[in-house]
Amino acid sequence: MLNDDDVFHLARLALTKDEADVRLFLAKQVRKLRRDDPESATRLEGLLKSQSSRSTGILRDAFPHDPSDRRSNLDSTPSLLKHYDNDQPLQAPIWEGEVLQMLGQSISERHFIDELSRCGLLPTRSLIFEGPPGVGKTMSAKWLAKKLALPLYALDLSAVMSSYLGKTGSNLRSVFDFAKSHPCVLLLDEVDAIAKRRADDADVGELKRLVTVMLQELDDWPADGLLIAATNHGSLVDPALWRRFEMVVAFKAPSAEMVRESICRYMGPDFDNMRHWAGLLEYLMVGKSHSDIERVVMQLRRLKVIAPLQFEDLAANLLIRDVDDIKKSERINAATYLVSTLGFSQHQANKMTGVSRDTIRKKIA
Prior knowledge:
This protein is of the alpha/beta class and about 375 residues long.
């Protein structure tokens, strides 16, 4: 039965004259009623199906009786979604301890569904990943999907907002209905795009409807799926939306230890032959993201294959070319490493890093 909040919510939706939102709300009530009042659920569902929608019509099949019927929507993947193949080998991303613990918990909960159910609990159904670009948010979503043996779909909300504004609500509902039609992981990338554009008066109505759709979906996401949102700017996400996510995972720029681990991993089979460059990379990659580290290391590995005789000089120039962006203390360490470990002259190290030869001599001494 509808409680007071449900009645108020339904009245508000009816007054906005947004038929799609009303139908979505009623379809959710059908799902709830099937357990406690199957007869009312059947009557309400019949009413929904008998009154054709002016929108896409996808809501009529969003809540089938048999869970196996949910597979019926799989043949029509929305064009806005990107599907990731999780059959490929994938190493666990390099995480700080807190991130590792939280993601590990979200996986473990899926192995204790029966125990959670006996306590009246569901596993975590929604997470929001917050952190700067390149720290492993998308890779973590891929890893979670692989560990859960679920397909992963990604939707870039910033692209949707720029390309489909005016149709965003119906497009987003189509994506949500598809994701809920079978167990999967849905990644909403750049979710802060919703909040970033709220100041645009011309679009505020559409954006409010979009936030409403997402709020409704977060409250009723199926327990056999996982909804993940990712943002580089957590402070810009609508507060009401932020509070609906059941787990907040904060990703940070790699620590010195994580930088070292990333260098070793990305060097792979070339590590023994390039070990002496690892120390210089550690100085130069402080504060960089994992994707920055991977890009530089892979450039070095390719360089060693195509120019083995000139590799030492070319590698040093490649690594030092952005030296002005490096902190002074790290530049001094890098200059010293070039001389004491890699065999460059003090003159060469000075030219490459801007650190004076006198400072290099004192540091070595």
